[in-house]
Amino acid sequence: MPVLPVRLFGDPVLRTPTDPVTSFDARLERAVTDLMDTVRHEDGAGLAAPQIGLSIRVFVYSCGGREGHLVNPEWEPIGDDRTHVNEGCLSIPGVSEPTERFARVRARGRDLHSRPVSFEADGILARAVQHETDHLDGILFLQRLAPEQRRSAMAQIRSSSWFGSAGISAGVVHDQLSETTGAR
């Protein structure tokens, strides 16, 4: 399966909440495979469907010694402990800022065959579950930062070589994927 371009900060699909998956079919399987191939290629911890231009509630993870995916994910914290470590995003290359997240979470959703999936996670996997679910809700980790951190991150973005790049966020990839996956 192909490695797809990752949508970059500024692309509206990254700020748009996704639609729940209702069809567990070959198109969903292809989307999950494309997401996994892309996250492996990019050496990321996780990747959400909007990051490749799909408006569906699915993400993949490859971190903490585990790989998998969640369709229509939900999570809840386990306890009140929080971590505050550097977090980055494949859609915001070169930017990493300390971001507060729950230390442990219980995640649940479906697999690509609509079977229930649930697991507990800590460390980087707990962080990935929260980060990728945020993507599905149209939230970027920048929105989780304190104002001073956000200003610093935005300055880094504005001075980056990729900022304003039309090649990936022009909608061409999104339109092609919409035809093959049925996503908007």
UniProtKB/TrEMBL annotation:
Catalyzed reaction equations: N-terminal N-formyl-L-methionyl-[peptide] + H2O = N-terminal L-methionyl-[peptide] + formate
A GO MF label: peptide deformylase activity
Binding site for Fe cation: C89, H131, H135
Record bears the keyword Methyltransferase: no
Keyword Metal-binding: yes
Active site: E132
UniProt KW keywords: Hydrolase, Iron, Metal-binding, Protein biosynthesis
Cofactor note: Binds 1 Fe(2+) ion.
A Pfam family: Pep_deformylase
EC annotation from Swiss-Prot or TrEMBL: 3.5.1.88
Superkingdom of origin: Bacteria
Enzyme class: hydrolase
Cofactor(s) named in the record: Fe(2+)
Primary role: Removes the formyl group from the N-terminal Met of newly synthesized proteins. Requires at least a dipeptide for an efficient rate of reaction. N-terminal L-methionine is a prerequisite for activity but the enzyme has broad specificity at other positions.
Family according to the record: Belongs to the polypeptide deformylase family.
Identification of the protein by name: Peptide deformylase
Phylogenetic placement of the source organism: Bacteria, Bacillati, Actinomycetota, Actinomycetes, Mycobacteriales
Gene responsible for this protein: def
